[in-house]
Automatic annotation (TrEMBL):
Species of provenance: Mycobacterium scrofulaceum
Superkingdom per UniProt: Bacteria
Gene3D superfamilies named among the record's database cross-references: Jann2411-like domain
Domain Zinc finger CGNR: 153-195
InterPro entries for this protein: ABATE, ABATE_dom_sf, Znf_CGNR
Protein name (record): Zinc finger CGNR domain-containing protein
One Pfam family per UniProt: ABATE
Length: 202
């Protein structure tokens, strides 16, 4: 597998579907905005990094199945459509169309699975590993998460330039930053600088 920057991306979202949204960095700063899913190989590398694919599955997709360039390009495009629909839904600008895009991706994922019953247990099983597997698994993760609790648990980082989302699991539901060591610390340094500048101007 070729090394991708997406494989080193911080997973601060607290859930794979939220981390998918964060594959665009610096959404609030046009000069620093970074797209980490530039091609299908980035999607595969990130999916393995995020636990959506195993190392063996990622290697198989990169080395063989993923060479269907047309199918890979379609899957990448649809994954980004899912990502942006989720972003709009979690930041308050979502619409019925966004919900339908997520539902379409989920229905496609279910068509690639069968329900298997083994004695007193049942579960979904994929027919095969395909180019679309990363998208299918992300769609299932997203819908399971969306239907499992309030959307208000997903918050936007207090640094508007950052724009990353995170799952707030704090007791008081008052977390402000995707990372207190990164964005939180940067905000503290900025406030300190502004206070020092104001005091010096008096």
């Amino acid at each position: 597998m070729l090394r991708s920057e997406a494989a080193d991306l911080d997973l601060r979202g607290g859930h794979p579907a939220v981390d998918l949204v964060n594959t665009v960095a610096w959404r609030g700063d046009a000069h620093r905005r970074t797209e980490y899913l530039a091609d299908y190989s980035d999607l595969v590398a990130w999916a393995q990094h995020a636990g959506i694919l195993s190392l063996r599955e990622a290697s198989t997709l990169s080395g063989g199945i993923g060479r269907d360039e047309a199918a890979a390009a379609r899957t990448l495009q649809r994954t980004k459509q899912l990502r942006e629909a989720l972003h709009r839904m979690w930041t308050g600008s979502g619409s019925a169309r966004d919900a339908e895009k997520v539902a379409d991706a989920y229905r496609s994922a279910l068509r690639a699975r069968r329900l298997v019953i083994d004695r007193d247990a049942a579960g979904w099983q994929e027919f095969a590993l395909t180019v679309q597997t990363p998208l299918h698994r992300l769609a299932v993760e997203a819908v399971t998460f969306l239907t499992g609790g309030p959307a208000s648990r997903v918050k936007r980082c207090g640094d508007d330039d950052c724009g990353w989302l995170f799952l707030d699991t704090s007791h008081r539901q008052n977390r402000r930053w995707c990372s207190t060591a990164d964005c939180g610390n940067r905000a503290r340094v900025r406030r300190f600088y502004e206070r020092t500048r104001d005091n010096a101007g008096r």
